[in-house]
Amino acid sequence: MAFVVITSQNTTQTVYDTDIFTLMPGSTLTAPGDAIDFDGVTFTEATVNILGTVVAGDIGVDAFTSLPAIGAANNITVRIGAEGAIFARDFALKFEDGDNIKVLNEGTMHSDRGGIYIDTESTNVRLENHGTISGNTSAGIRADGDDNYILNTGTITGTGSTAADGAVVSRNAILDNSGILSSRDGLTVFFGSGDNVFNNSGTVFGDVAYQNGADKLVNLGGGIVTGQVYTGDGTDTIINTGQISGGVVLGTDTDTYDAFGAGLTIGIVSGGDGNDTLASSDQAEHLSGGANDDKLVGRGGDDTLDGGTGADMIFAGTGNDSVIGGSENDTVRGGDGDDTVFGGSGDDDIFANAGDDNLLGEAGNDFILGGTGNDYIEGGADNDTLNGNADDDTLFGGDGNDLLVGQDGSDVLEGGDNNDTLDGGDGDDILEGGDGNDILRGRAGEDDLAGGLGRDYLTGGEGADNFVFRSIAGTVAGANRDQIMDFEQGVDTIVIAGLSPGVFEFRGTAAFAPSGNPEIRLNETATGSTIVQIDNNGDGTIDAEIRVGGVTGLTADDFVL
Predict the structure, then answer these.
(1) Which stretch of DSSP H or E encloses residue 432?
(2) How far lies 42's CA from each of 46, 72, 73, 148, 242, in Å?
(3) What's 472-560's CATH class?
(4) Where residue 113 falls among pLDDT bands split at 50, 70, 90?
(5) If DSSP codes are grouped into helix, strand and coil, which group holds residue 499?
(6) What would the pLDDT profile of 467-522 be if each residue is shown by its tens digit?
(7) Left (φ > 0), alpha (ψ -120 to 50) or beta: where does 499 sit?
(8) How far is CA 423 from CA 269, 486, 530, 559, in A?
């Protein structure tokens, strides 16, 4: 073992096996080529301490050579003290074929090309930077070898006017950053092949990108990425409790984005290809599943959750969330808060929770179940099943043969087009059949039932119900007349006032008197039912009919005329 201590020199210095080499504070080592060279043998151990200044090659951005400041070797420890500095035209440190190398920088390292370069043949390199490392055209750090570890509490940057990266890392590397990583025009952090891990509690000015492999980014509380995060091939994981100011674009495989607490991605988190899992934090985030079958979890905050293509599972969580199911058959579960859900195309299952929600099935045969709160539920196209569940809900079937169930609360049910079934459930409900041959059941409570167009069947159920007729076209004469199935005299009411601008004259079982005034008369059948015949213009002809099943002896008091 030799202790080599030098002051200012202007020739290349050679370090031999087991040497401890020290450039003293205030000294300058200058050389036109390599400032420090390692003897070409296998090193068992050697240490280089740079406490002064090393200058390799002519400094200047207008000329480049391939002259590293310190050459390659195995089992080397390089320390740059707080007052130490390395300046070079090619790389400040370059390891072309070295293993088990340790670099500790507390000073300044700068090169017209790149700060530190670790070749693909160099493995198990540990780099700790507590100072400043910069490269002008390549990268502050480029680590291409296997199983390297980089710890940064200082600053690593690509400073040039061209696309200089901050740090380029590959092949199962670990990068721990609590300092500053930056670049001018290039990627701030780029991970190449292998399964790489990036733990960030510092600041990354710019973008982070992964190429392939099972990569991981842990953006800890206090960690900031000002740009985008891109992942490539491989199963990648992003855990975010810090802030990503841009978006996250996941790659082609099954990837995970998981945010917690105050973690926030301000841009869109895009799943890309693969069956991805995306989960937001307690903040408002925008998650987009992209292609294939994804799982999206809203957690807290007012989130936007877009399943994209594929059969997705979406959990809205707390907050007032906006959910888009996308194409194919999705499952959406709302949480607390006032959520808005668009099912998209496909046969979707949508389950609300607490809050006043807007639930729209859109295309497909959808099943939608409201939760607690006053929900608006719309089936959209095709044959849907809608259930308001608790509280006072509004249900609209839209196109298709729909089933609408109000359940608890005072609900409004409108069937829309085609042949619908409406069931009010408990509470004082309003049922509007719309177009088509509809079945309306009020159930318990004081309900209003209006069949609309088509041959409709109206059952009031328990309570004082109103059977409402608003247009002549809604209850034609003959076999397609509307049917009241359970009229209870003295309790229920038949409302026909809207069928004519004037007040109807009640004729009982007598014939029409054609007086020019609107009239109604009763035709009691042998089977114990009554056909209510309506002349809405007083010309003595039947314009509309209503069958009241199982009841005779109706009086004017049973009507609103």
Answers:
(1) strand 430-432
(2) 11, 11, 7, 20, 44
(3) mainly beta
(4) confident
(5) helix
(6) 999 999 988 999 999 999 999 999 999 999 999 999 999 999 999 998 899 999 99
(7) alpha
(8) 41, 15, 25, 24
Angle, CA of 168, 171 and 174, to the nearest 5°? 70
Other residues' Cβ atoms within 10 Å of the Cβ of residue 518: 22
Q: Cβ contacts of residue 515 below 8 Å, gap of 6+?
A: 505, 538
Q: What's phi and psi for 56, nearest 5 deg?
A: -120, 125
Q: How far is CA 496 from CA 263, 513, 545, in A?
A: 61, 19, 11
- CB contact at 8 A, 66 and 92: no
Contact 96, 120 (CB under 8 A): no
- The Cα–Cα gap between 198 and 173 comes to 8
pLDDT in tens, 29-58: 998 877 888 765 567 888 999 999 999 874
The structure's pTM equals 0.90
User: Rounded distance, CA 502 to CA 444, Å?
Assistant: 33
DSSP string, 10-46: SS-EEE-TT-EEEEPTT-EEEESS-SEEE-SS--S-E
